[in-house]
Design brief:
Distance between the termini: 41 Å
Largest sheet: 6 strands, mixed
Helix content: 25-40%
Radius of gyration: 24 Å
Structural class: alpha/beta
CATH architecture of the largest domain: 4-Layer Sandwich
Oligomer: single chain
Number of domains: 2
Subcellular location: Secreted
Number of strands: 14
Protein name: Saposin B-type domain-containing protein
Shape: globular
CATH class of the largest domain: Alpha Beta
Strand order of the largest sheet: 5-4-1-12-13-14
Catalytic activity: a sphingomyelin + H2O = phosphocholine + an N-acylsphing-4-enine + H(+)
Pfam family, one: Metallophos
Cofactor: Zn(2+)
């Protein structure tokens, strides 16, 4: 059957979806669908055997990033993916599209070992997106497999995916680059909090099953707790999302113990029960979240970027040319309502258009919030036109050019790190970051749930660092909850607005649950770069030197791995050496997706 699948795929003319009739002579539509069914099962089984991710990367949120950026795709997996898509396409062209959801459910169950209820819910939610892609987009095997598995499984020159589209930079010459200067002693430092990936579960139930066999647990509906080896504790569980009361108590604590000049939130507020979410739930969660912020931090500036979990279904962010029920009209107006207390009114059009905006926080200092779901390889809506959806990057250029002309410095917030975006989007973001390196003083991301470092290096001089990506760990309890506070040189005339240092805080979830609900979790300072890594300042050149030191010292690098896992012993106790270490080093040095020009 495998041989037959391969033979069939080689005989297709993908520009017309025409099939060589000699290969199908005597085959009925039902026979075609039987081959599709068998092929999908075989594909799922074989794909299941070829997931070679290093254990150090283990986190549900990073699964697709690994597939799309690691370059470790097995040839058989890629081949079978194309065969599978070819046969599904044949089923659709034969008028038997009702079979396709069942095929998708089988792949979900076998490949990803998910429960039937999960797969049924996900496929049901995604059906309109599949229909759009089938009706409107040229879905060749190269399209689908290149988009899902990464450009290593496609011919990157095919026009449909158009990986190499280019934004247009203005003709204004790039200013000469000057070294970043430390602030004068005693200069003002602002404190900026950074939280991400909260994933709060409004239906979390103490005592519910915490090992239910589903992607996330701790709800009444997640199975009989009497058969569970572990029950949901008060403050949360490593296999569940964050209880609402935990978030409330965390914010209450921070209100009493911290003083922030601004709060950055880089997305992902809803829970991981993605197979049963509704639009109403997503809107309610954001409403409750912003109300909580207003309660505890009424006078603090707040800047938010959209995560891939904000929409329903997950990863689904159609551009504005998608109209009607499938558009984002159900979400963006509500988002504007919730953000309007912090965001200037002249940004309403941008929020309603694409969920992005900019605001001047201080004289000479601007922040930009990007909707980087437009570069998410799992956002299938963008397949119809993958070139700068909703013109967001071109808009970013205009904002940065005005900032440069006005002498402003800029922080950019987004959910997905630029190295994890689809290739065209990633490379264009990098191009913008390099052109405006003297204006951008920090890139702030989340999404991976881990505490990570990324450095932007000049492709023309691969030892010169020109920017830093600050990737904060999650507040969610897949490891210990964490947040970060940056010390930023700013708030006075001619400040650099560079991050000088930061403080990364965690609380030990196990200890918090053992202490009980009457005692607030104890936040501890996990690390500080200037003290634990020996940096003078958190400048790009200093981070670049640290990466070199990681290469030379396994002991120092293991400290990074410990912080990567937010000091969660069960995750970080295994040493990361050899190939595992090399991959981490490469990830730190390469902020462009699929780029092999930076030595690592």
């Amino acid at each position: 059957v495998l041989l037959r699948l391969r033979q069939l795929s080689l005989s297709y003319s993908w520009k017309t979806f025409a099939f060589d009739s000699t290969n199908f002579k005597g085959m009925t539509t039902k026979a075609y669908l039987n081959v599709v069914l068998v092929g999908s099962i075989l594909l799922a089984v074989l794909m299941n055997a070829s997931d070679a991710r290093p254990a150090a990367f283990n986190a549900p949120s990073n699964h697709y990033n690994w597939l799309s950026s690691s370059g470790r795709l097995q040839g058989l997996e890629c081949s079978l993916c194309k065969d599978f898509v070819a046969l599904v396409r044949k089923a659709l062209d034969s008028g038997e599209s009702s079979y396709v959801p069942e095929i998708a459910k089988l792949v979900c169950i076998i490949k990803y070992k998910e429960a039937a209820q999960v797969c049924d819910g996900v496929v049901t939610l995604w059906r309109p997106i599949f229909k759009f892609a089938i009706d409107k987009v040229y879905l060749s095997p190269e399209n689908v497999c290149g988009q899902y598995l990464g450009s290593g499984c496609s011919n990157s020159t095919i026009p449909e995916l158009n990986y190499y589209w280019n934004v247009t930079l203005p003709s204004v010459p790039k200013p000469p680059v000057t070294p970043i200067q430390p602030p004068t002693p005693g200069a003002r430092r602002l404190r900026v909090a950074h939280i991400s990936d909260v994933h709060v579960d409004m239906l979390y139930k103490v005592g519910a099953s915490a090992d239910c066999g589903l992607p996330t647990c701790c709800r009444v509906s997640d199975g009989d707790p009497s058969t569970s080896k572990r029950r949901a504790a008060y403050w949360g569980d490593y296999n569940c999302d964050l209880p609402w009361w935990s978030l409330d108590r965390i914010f209450s604590q921070l209100n009493r113990t911290e003083k922030f000049d601004a709060i950055y939130f880089t997305g992902d507020l809803p829970d991981h029960h993605v197979w049963e979410q509704t639009r109403e739930q997503q809107v309610d969660i954001y409403r409750n979240f912003t109300a909580l912020l207003s309660k505890y931090f009424p006078d603090v500036a707040f800047v938010a970027a959209l995560g891939n979990h904000e929409s329903v279904p997950v990863n689904s962010f159609p551009p504005r040319y998608i109209k009607g029920n499938e558009s984002m009209d159900w979400y963006y107006p509500a988002l504007w309502e919730f953000l309007s207390p912090w965001v200037p009114s002249d940004q309403k059009e941008n929020v309603l258009k694409g969920g992005y905006y900019t605001q001047l926080l201080y004289p000479g200092f601007r922040v930009v919030s990007l909707n980087l779901n437009y570069g998410n390889n799992l956002n299938w809506w963008i397949l119809q036109n993958i070139t700068d959806p909703d013109d967001q990057l071109q808009w970013l250029i205009s904002v940065l050019q005005r900032a440069e002309s006005n002498g402003e410095k800029v922080h950019i917030l987004g959910h997905i790190p630029s190295s994890d975006l689809i290739k065209g989007y990633s490379w264009n973001y990098f191009k913008i970051a390099e052109r405006y390196e003297s204006t951008i003083t920090g890139h702030f991301f989340g999404h991976t749930h881990h505490d990570e470092l990324g450095v932007y290096f000049d492709p023309a001089n691969t030892t010169r660092a020109f920017g830093t990506a600050y990737i904060v760990g999650s507040l969610k309890t897949d490891d210990n909850p964490s947040y970060r506070v940056y010390e930023v040189d700013g708030g006075y005339a001619n400040a650099s607005w560079q991050v000088l240092d930061y403080y990364n805080y965690i609380f030990n979830l196990t200890e918090a649950n053992q202490a009980g609900q009457q005692r607030d979790p104890t936040w501890i300072l996990e690390y500080q770069p200037t003290k634990d890594y020996g940096l003078r300042y958190a400048f790009p050149a200093e981070w670049a030197k640290l990466i070199d030191r990681f290469e030379q010292s396994d002991e120092l690098f293991q400290l990074y791995i410990r912080f990567y896992h937010k000091s969660h012993l069960l995750s970080s106790q295994q040493p990361c050496t050899g190939d595992c270490k090399r991959q981490f080093i490469c990830r730190m040095r390469n902020m462009r997706s699929g780029d092999d020009s930076i030595p690592c």
